[in-house]
């Protein structure tokens, strides 16, 4: 990881020692669900809160990716990008092919932290805790959030 001192509190902050990869060789930090969710709309994107909250360490970007065991249950995770200055709760976009329930603490996705270098100066906007296109209001869509 870019900074060995990085780390996620009722949601965990990324700087909390509990926000660590499961093993020495694990590439990502597992993202435990913050609550129970009924995945009762097959094929529909549902947004689920995790127990992890930003911001990420400066100079990193987070990739939200599925865990390898997730697809065996008929669950798909839509990959996402978490900017380092995002301060809100990290959410995952879930599609289930079958009706099922997922429970608090279950880990469907993982966060991979990668170093990045800015190539263009930002527009000076403050990120805050908005997500899913919040810096471009014209791209906002309505999602089913249980």
Automatic annotation (TrEMBL):
CDD domains, per database record: trimeric_dUTPase
Keywords on this record?
Aspartyl protease, Hydrolase, Protease
What domain of life?
Eukaryota
Q: Where is the composition biased (Polar residues)?
A: 135-146
**One Pfam family from the record:** dUTPase
The Gene Ontology terms for molecular function here are: aspartic-type endopeptidase activity
* Residue span(s) of domain dUTPase-like: 20-135
GO annotations under biological process?
A: dUMP biosynthetic process; proteolysis
The transmembrane segments are none
Region Disordered, as annotated, extends over 125-146
| Gene3D superfamilies for this protein | 2.70.40.10
Q: Which SUPFAM superfamilies match?
A: dUTPase-like (SSF51283)
Protein's recorded name: dUTPase-like domain-containing protein
The scientific name of the source species is Naja naja
Q: What is the lineage of its organism?
A: Eukaryota, Metazoa, Chordata, Craniata, Vertebrata
């Amino acid at each position: 990881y870019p900074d060995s001192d990085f780390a996620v509190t009722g949601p965990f902050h990324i700087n909390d020692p509990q926000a660590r990869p499961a093993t020495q060789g694990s590439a990502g930090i597992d993202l435990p669900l913050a609550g129970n969710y009924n995945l009762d709309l097959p094929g529909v994107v549902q947004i689920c809160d995790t127990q992890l909250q930003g911001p990420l360490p400066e100079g990193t970007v987070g990739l939200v990716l599925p865990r390898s065991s997730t697809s065996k249950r008929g669950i798909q995770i839509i990959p996402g990008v978490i900017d380092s200055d995002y301060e809100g709760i990290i959410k995952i976009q879930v599609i289930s092919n079958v009706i099922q329930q997922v429970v608090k603490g279950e880990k469907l996705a993982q966060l991979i932290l990668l170093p990045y270098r800015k190539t263009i100066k930002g527009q000076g906007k403050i990120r805050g805790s908005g997500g899913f296109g919040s810096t471009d209001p014209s791209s906002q869509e309505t999602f089913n959030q249980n």
